[in-house]
From TrEMBL:
Its cofactor is Mg(2+). It comes from Nitrincola lacisaponensis. Gene3D superfamilies: NagB/RpiA/CoA transferase-like (3.40.50.10420). PANTHER family: 5-FORMYLTETRAHYDROFOLATE CYCLO-LIGASE, ATPASE INHIBITOR/5-FORMYLTETRAHYDROFOLATE CYCLO-LIGASE. This is 5-formyltetrahydrofolate cyclo-ligase. Substrate binds at L51, E56.
Length: 198
C-alpha cells in the first residue's frame, strides 16, 4: 500500500526527533559548512532562515555566520491576516520575540521593517521530506508555497533562491509534485548540496 503524505510526515518527523542533541549539533555545523561555500549564500545579503522545531536541522550556526558577515537575517512570521502566508521580519541577537500558534519563536511585529518575500536574496526553508529532484514535503500548512507562489508565474518576478535545509535521513525516493509546489533551487544536508535547475 503506498504511503500517504500524512504517514510519511509522521514517520520522518519521528525519526528526526530521535536524533540526539550531539548528532543534531554535528549535522547543523556540517550543513552550515556545506551551504556557506555556495554562490547562493555568498552572493546573498538578505537571507531568510528559521528557528528549528520538532527535530528540524538547525540553521543557528548559519545565523551566527550571517551576523558575523553582516548579512541581514530574517525569520518567518505567521501573517496576522492572510490565510497561511508568511511575513519575513529582521532578526538580531536582541530582537523581541513571541511564540506563535505552533509554539515556534518568531520576532514580534512591532515597528520592524518587513522585507517583501520577492526582495529576499536567499530563503532557507524547513522541510519534512525531500527527493533528489527537488520535491519538498513541509509541515502541511502550505505556508511557503502560498508565500512564494509568484515564482510559479511565467512572467513572474524571479525572486529569491529557495534552498531547503534537511538531515540526509529526510530524503525519500520520489515525492509526487503538486501543482502548487514552488520549485526549489537546491537542498543542503549535512552530507551534500543538491542543485536543481531553477
Ligand atoms: N521552524 C519552522 N518554522 C516555521 C515553519 C516550519 O515548518 N518550521 N513553517 C512552515 O510552514 C511555518 C509554520 N508552519 C507550521 C505548520 C504546522 C506545524 C505543526 O506542528 N502542526 C501540527 C498540528 C497543527 C496544530 O497544532 O494546530 C502537527 O502537524 O503536529 C508547525 C508549523 C512558519 N515557521
Ligand atoms: N498557492 C496556493 N494557493 C492555495 N492553496 C495552496 C497553495 N499552496 C498550497 N496550498 C494548499 O495548502 C495545503 C498544504 O500544502 P502542502 O501539503 O504542500 O504544504 P507543505 O508544503 O507541506 O507546507 P509548508 O509550506 O507550510 O511547509 C494544501 O491543501 C494546498 O491545497
Amino acid at each position: 500500500m503506498p504511503t500517504t503524505r500524512q504517514q510519511l510526515r509522521r514517520n520522518i518527523r519521528q525519526q528526526r526527533r530521535q536524533l540526539s542533541p550531539a548528532v543534531q549539533r554535528r549535522h547543523a555545523l556540517l550543513m552550515q559548512q556545506q551551504i556557506c561555500q555556495t554562490l547562493w549564500f555568498r552572493q546573498a545579503r538578505h537571507i531568510a532562515l528559521y528557528l528549528p522545531s520538532d527535530g528540524e536541522i538547525s540553521p543557528e550556526p548559519l545565523i551566527q555566520l550571517c551576523w558575523k558577515l553582516k548579512k541581514t537575517v530574517y525569520l518567518p512570521v505567521l501573517h496576522p491576516i492572510l490565510h497561511n502566508r508568511l511575513w519575513f521580519l529582521p532578526y538580531h541577537a536582541h530582537s523581541p520575540m513571541r511564540l506563535n500558534s505552533y509554539k515556534i519563536r518568531e520576532p514580534r511585529l512591532l515597528k520592524a521593517p518587513r522585507r517583501p518575500a520577492w526582495a529576499l536574496d536567499l530563503v532557507c526553508l524547513p522541510l519534512v521530506a525531500f527527493d533528489s529532484e527537488g520535491g519538498r514535503l513541509g509541515m502541511g500548512g502550505g505556508y511557503y508555497d502560498r508565500t512564494f507562489n509568484f515564482k510559479l508565474k511565467s512572467q513572474g518576478i524571479k525572486g529569491p533562491k529557495l534552498v531547503g535545509l534537511a538531515h540526509a535521513l529526510q530524503q525519500v525516493d520520489k515525492l509526487p509534485l503538486e501543482n502548487w509546489d514552488v520549485p526549489l533551487t537546491g537542498i543542503a544536508t549535512e552530507k551534500q548540496i543538491f542543485s536543481f535547475n531553477c
